[in-house]
Amino acid sequence: MNILYGVPGEGLGHATRSKVVMAHLLAQGHDVRAVSSSRAFHVLDVAFPGRVLEIRGFHLAYKGLAVSKSRTSALILRTAPASLQQNFRQYQQLLHDFRPDVVVSDFESFSYFYAKAHGLPVVSIDNMQIISRTRLDVAVPPPERGNYQLAKNIVRLKVPRSRYYFVATFFTPLVSKARTTLVPPIIRPEILAARPTAGAHILVYQSATTQHDLVALLQQIPEQEFRVYGFNKEESHGNVQLKAFSEAGFIADLASSRAIITNGGFSLISEAVFLHKPICAVPIPAQFEQWLNAAEVEKLGYGRHFGAITADNIRAFVGGLPAFSGALAGYAQDGNAVLFANLDACLVGLAAAAPGE
């Protein structure tokens, strides 16, 4: 089949997992093209030269450590006209050179609109649909209820009435809507190949580098070694090592870590769960999906969920590491086999149902 794959540019988690699925689809003999933006486009373009078109996506704006709804809205309104013109030109090129049979969307809108405009079936593969297509098994506290409703509304509107939904997740609430299948998280080959060991350091991933007191805070726990990614620096500050970005270095430090401290991002949490690494999750404020991931980490006994990184919170997390490791020992996942089997069967069914088949 000819498959158009839509990948958003906000965050690299979408690109990382979409790269895994695209490689599988190509290995199965499908002709795959992708549309993406920003850093995700460059990641995919390197992996699949000549198969990726660059579009302009919408991005989040931050105020301090939190997502700013007003700044994000203003950014979208300011950039939308030029973005739409760029995307229209790219889709004209796509229509000229490539005729998709199906669209796969990882929470990406423009490929979805293309599918609807041309009467094509859409297959959704992402983790966000957990918010709208399941009954959550954690209580949402009052301060998060507004964020929950906003997130649910956005998710419902993102790729509505898709033919199938494959929802990647490390937890398993009850599915509440039809044509929805929960699958284990998509794990990249480098993580599948990693051999986890129990090192002495804690890996810290800081995506919002506006927390400038992080080094001083971690130095308050001198008995613990920390390796910090996110500032893109190579510096030593006693027990705190700042690390410049390196995919190989990051994976090595993750696989050999004692535990991790991160926000609520799905990709890193999923990789840590797969490698049985305890997690201290501090979600970015006003991002409900991150709050949900962090809440599930604590509910499952895989780590702790805190509202802020403090020395006392880290000490409490470190004190619980034996129990967290014990809970994680019960997690098992057969690579990406479940998703691939379900996706292959889905595409076979779509091909059989296509007009003229």
From TrEMBL:
Example GO molecular function: glycosyltransferase activity
Any matching Pfam family: Glyco_trans_1_3
Gene3D superfamilies: Glycogen Phosphorylase B (3.40.50.2000)
PANTHER family for this protein: GLYCOSYLTRANSFERASE, UDP-N-ACETYLGLUCOSAMINE--N-ACETYLMURAMYL-(PENTAPEPTIDE) PYROPHOSPHORYL-UNDECAPRENOL N-ACETYLGLUCOSAMINE TRANSFERASE 1
Protein name (Swiss-Prot/TrEMBL): UDP-glucuronosyltransferase
Taxonomic placement: Bacteria, Pseudomonadati, Bacteroidota, Cytophagia, Cytophagales
